[in-house]
Amino acid sequence: MALGSFLTRVAGVASALAAVAPLAHAQPQRPQADTGGFVISDPLVVSKCQKCHARDSTGHMGRLSYLRKTPEGWEASVRRMASLADVKLQPTDARAIVKYLANKQGLAPAEVRDARFEMERRFMDFRYTGDAVTERTCRACHSVGRVMLQRRTKTEWELLIATHRGYYPNSDFQAFRRSGPSSDSAPAPHPMDQAIGHLSKAFPLQTPSGPRGRRRCDRPPWKGAGSSRATRSGAGRCSGG
Predict the structure, then answer these.
(1) Confidence of residue 157 (pLDDT cuts 50, 70, 90)
(2) What range defines the domain where residue 154 resides?
């Protein structure tokens, strides 16, 4: 490798490490301006997480209120916070936090159908056809199934990309690398920007199958007071009255 190229690479890594330096000091993540976030009311989640995920007067917490995952995804997040942010958790507390978040901000059966192989840890040659650039950008480091099992606001997808670049600076030389345009063409959209645009539309926080979309069943035809509970195929449990 030429010396100039090596020095350029080192400078890039140094810049990425400098960008993530504030994360090491646990700067609180403020609630977003995006609408549709989830109120987090569980005392255990609030007490263990609000040091880094600030909670506002409405009960929304930075980052946590603006994503949904499977139980396996929430478990991975809790493990990551314990290892990277040095969060001290007893096993019983960790399980309780995962249970609360998975119940309140989980995914419906219809939302996990195409990526169930990721939860089941099955090896298969899956190709995501929604967007070629997004597929290539994410697949360089992990299965696209991991991405498909999450729902986030656009701001949260942007923060996720920033977290990748901060914690894993080599990503700038792999999946997130910007290729220069030819001399007679306009600059192409950066892969990260294109991925964020696609993911925020394909996997938004709120969907018809999500917790708010499937919260109530259709009103039954009978008269008078009453309530109903049911399990709707592809949507999960719902209730109405």
Answers:
(1) very high
(2) 18-173+190-205
